[in-house]
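Section: Multi-chain targets

For targets with more than one molecule, the full set of components is provided together so that the structure can be written out for the assembly as a whole rather than chain by chain. Components appear in the order listed by the source. The example entry contains two components.
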Amino acid sequence: MKDLRIRGVAKSFGPQRVLRGVDLDVPHGSFTAILGASGSGKTTLLRIAAGFERPDEGEVSLGAEMVDDSGGHFVPSERRRIGYVPQEGALFPHLSVGRNVGFGLSRGTGRAARVDELLELVGLSGYRRRYPHQLSGGQQQRVALARALAIEPEVVLLDEPFSSLDAALRASVRADVLGVLRQSRTTSVLVTHDQDEALSMADQVAVLRDGVIAQLDTPARLYGHPEDAELARFLGESNVLEGEVRDGVATTRLGRLPVAGWSGPHGGGAARVMVRPEQITLGAVATDALEGTVASYEYFGHDAVVRVRPGPEGLPDLVVRVSGGTPLEPGHRVGLTVHGSVVAWPMEPVELAESSE
Amino acid sequence: MSAGAGARAWSGHRRLPPVLTAAAVLVSVVVLLPLVFLVVQAVQVGWSQLRQLLFRNLTAMLVWDTVSLVVVVTLLCVAVGTLAAWFVERTDLPCRRLLAILVVIPLGIPDFVVSFGWRAVFPNIGGFWAAVLIMTLAVYPLVFLPVAASLRAADPAQEEVARSLGLGRVRTFWTVTVGQARMAIFGGALLVGLVVLAEFGAFEILGYQTLTTEIYNEFQVGFNEPAACALSLILVLLGALLLASEDSVRGRGRTSRVGAGAARPIRPVALGRARPAVLAGAVLLVVLALGVPVGAIAYLIIEGGNSTLPPASLLIATANTFGYAAAAGVVATVAALPIALLSVRFPRRPVVALQRTNMLVLAVPGLVVALSFTYVTEHFLQGRFYQTSPLLVLAYAIMFFPLALVSVRAAVARSPVGLEEVGRSLGVPRRSVLWRVTLPLIGPGLGAAFALVFLETATELTATLVLHPTNVETLATQFWAYQSNLSYGQAAPYAGVMVLIAAVPGYVLGRWFDRQPERVTGAAPAPTASILVAA
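Its structure, encoded as tokens over all components, is:
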């Protein structure tokens, strides 16, 4: 098991600069997610790590070994021992499940036993003689994983492996795959555009934006303390309010809120303040709380998202997440309370439209 | 299961591989040589002489006779092919599975053999309408096959929606059903037109003059090269016009289903009291298209007995035919690989344009290919290579190159780059991945490409007559020699062997291509139609 290290990797396709100097460390045995919008270059980064693509600049190393220095030194894909699980699995359609899994294993002693072992690991013991077209999407994905793990790779790279599955299947296949990877303690890199997927699966998440890693952190840090408002919005719904930070307290139209993260000048100043939808609770109208009117109510079963129009005219709606319960009628008047501390960024550097999507 | 959508998208950024690109360009240049040679020849003849040859009554008459024949045969083939396809695919016609097979087989029988069979039964047959009848019977499957395939693939719900919107059964048929099959009908009609333009043997047997038969006679009998050249220019221009019309029709909307989900099985339309009449019509079609020529050949062989049959020369001719056909099949298939790989894996505008220029050969009849080769070997190579096996094989490979290209493209599309990358990431070296992944996946398609070119070559007559080495006889040349002497009994066994070689495997191949997913042959109006060009 080895670390994967990426240093200053840049890549252009024609005039388009896709990666502009990416640094990323994936410690051995960890699960790292690379999260980015479509077109952010995340698949290119993965393909460079796999050896399918050469970077224009920068270096890739596996453990102590340099595998690509973007110059004369290049270790081809077949000698990197990197397990690659592409979108939709890409099983060899002309080979049975057993032969797919055993593809990278040398003929002879132990191959059959190893294939059985891997199929058992992914919960498909009886499927050895089946063909890919006889499997469901989730089963195909698990076979692809078993095939990648068969060669005991240094690192497993997963390129949006769940995006082609339907929502119900996705959660269970995700859990299965995570279980297998944890059990085998394989260093794993997952590329995805799905925040929930990245946050729920990974030990660390790297957000790729404009060709660089915008933030690398644990899921909790990333969600709770994004480094700017754009990241905050990218990682989940959030309310970004204008306010004023003084001595660790932000004054906003939701009242005075304790600040847990502040990257601005020492004394404080004008700020953007992030309040996550689940930090707000709705209650009866009270004298000391802010009031609002329910604008819409979206019911999801396990919870619901309420858009609340605050008292004064012209201010944007607040997004509030509440547990299921009784639906609230639009027009209903509610009181708003904020719990916990908030993150604030100084106003000047980022020019962003004031919306709470 | 489709693999690696992402990988496909990414390949769009990569640089074109130089060796592959060079090979593809080289192949395209060779494939277009006949056109170049034709132009060179025209320049040598000179404009003033060309003008005299072009603007004379004979030319006008030939163009009229040819074009009217093309138009009438094409219209009849569209009518017969489309109706037959609809009855077989969408109605409760009895025995429609069997009929579906019988109706396709005539495609495998060479047109000149159909003509020969009819002539043997009705010795006085001839003229425009005989030519129309025989060509229609010989080539209507070119419309039937793609239309049947598209009717099978079309979503019956569209017809139901039309009915629910208040359209009657007849209007639904015209607007929805014919609409769904529009591209397939057009693709088939295009091929019918090209085949009729290029046909030589069938018309020569009937004594009907077209541009092609006249070119042959000017060249082979009258040794009048300038006249042959002038007429060839017209012939190629007519073919090019047909091809260009394809471009203008395609791209006016799509005929595919929108949305996912498997189409429901189609509930057949009840024919009711019309059933016996329709069945009788279908049986009549099979009798005329299949029964008459095959019956005539069988009768001639049996009646001829073995006194007139020299089995040795039949065996030698068969062996020669197999040799040429196999060589042409290998050459065309291998030559198609670079262009197919490039156009599937790097589908950028210049690459697609390169691939499509190769389709121009469809507009060049085999006779014109042969004559241009003859001209160039005579005038620039002091007769070297003329009537040698390599040149003949090259001519075959060029003539049937579009067939090979379409099938090899379909084959290559079955093996996306993503699979090779996965193979390599599993620690398997590039060459080993080629053997274990790429070749097993594209092998059947390459086999199909080879088989198509093989079958077309085995039944090719016109170019063979012009270019075959004088001491090497093939089935087609022997058949033609006996037929020209009116030795029908002696010609029949050669025709019989050609039918056996072509008809049965031709049918199997037709069904195989029917089952290919449509998207892999995206460049063609209808997959089957573009493949089954009977020359």
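Residues 1-12, 252-263, 516-535 of chain B have pLDDT under 50 and may be disordered.
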